[in-house]
Amino acid sequence: MVKVLAVLYRGGKAAVEEPRLLGALENKLGIADWLKSEGHEFIVTDDKEGPDSVFQKELPTADVLITTPFHPAYLTGDLIRNKAQNLKLAITAGVGSDHVDLNAANEKKITVAEVTGSNVVSVAEHVVMDILALVRNFVPAHEMIERGDWVVADIARNAFDLEGKVIGTLGCGRIGFRVLKRLVAFDPKELIYYDYAALPAAAEKEIGARRVEDLHEFLGQCDVITINAPLHEGTRGLVNKELLSHVKKGAWIVNTARGAICDRIAIKEALESGQINGYAGDVWDVQPAPKDHPWRTMKNPLGGGNGMTPHYSGTTLDAQKRYADGTKDILQRWLTGKEQEPANVIVINGEYATKAYGQRK
Ligand code: NAD
């Protein structure tokens, strides 16, 4: 018998009415009956902050921890070293395991696995939506209609077509590639990417993308920048005041990767000064975002340019089914001693199994 601890977001009435909200606390990823029938203990909570939280109280006796990026239980180095004595496996129900201190997990030989690919289409679609919402000035237009106003010029003065623009992705893995692929249909001037790993030649050719190896040069060329790299030592705080000074004036930025890749204040100031024309995404430097987080209300000088939402791009109902099934598969393999799907493994036996979390020796 093993003890599995899961930290999931509270779904409330929505989760009771909609059983396909598998990622919610109430629906327990659809694995509660199975785990019980196998004789395992399964604790599920949304209470994740501080030493008195259920998360921290149950952690010392848990063999397996399941978390999600949507309501991240931060498994810090301190918790790994001092509280998670029994922990052998940390599963991310979704994609993106930066809320786990991966270096500390390596020290303690804890395996970290995620359901790679489970929501990459969901996110890529969201990015395309965010890009269009910013470039076409959608949010202020809708707000105007709700207010009962009708002043077309106030919206049109900052509305553009995506056609003919240069669109670039910082990070061109599963999501970045899928974003660019979807944008081909909009006839952009050019699709470019910045990534230390080059796309296979056939993939570059398929979408007509060009790799730019210098980050400043890349930023200076993009009308639209979409961020699709994991959060790690090399990307934390990467988009700061200095880097933003290299961005083409009036560019739009969409970040559905991780909030902490962008500096909170630098983004707000760049938007307010008009250095960037818009910022959208669904990820925040801490989640849930505090009520006074500047990204909730920041605006460009014309009163628009904010397309922020709560973190949900990768948790559509379609995605939830895929990451719930994937979580069960990872768990089942671990319980029966079967090898994990290699693409799902982030760290194992004290080492990084993926090249996506930074360039290492
Ligand atoms: P992936 O591993 O397929 O691709 C990541 C790419 O980023 C890789 O090609 C890697 O080489 C590149 N990269 C890493 N560091 C870089 C750097 N410093 N500069 C440039 N490129 C760099 O991952 P993916 O499936 O495309 O997901 C990417 C990230 O998106 C995840 O790690 C996660 O943080 C985020 N994500 C968000 C949601 C959401 O709901 N908002 C859902 C899924 C994933």
Automatic annotation (TrEMBL):
SUPFAM superfamilies: Formate/glycerate dehydrogenase catalytic domain-like (SSF52283), NAD(P)-binding Rossmann-fold domains (SSF51735). It catalyses: formate + NAD(+) = CO2 + NADH. One of its GO terms (biological process) is formate catabolic process. Substrate binds at residues 95, 119. It comes from the Eukaryota. NCBIfam families: PRK07574.1. Homodimer. This is Formate dehydrogenase. It comes from Calocera cornea HHB12733.
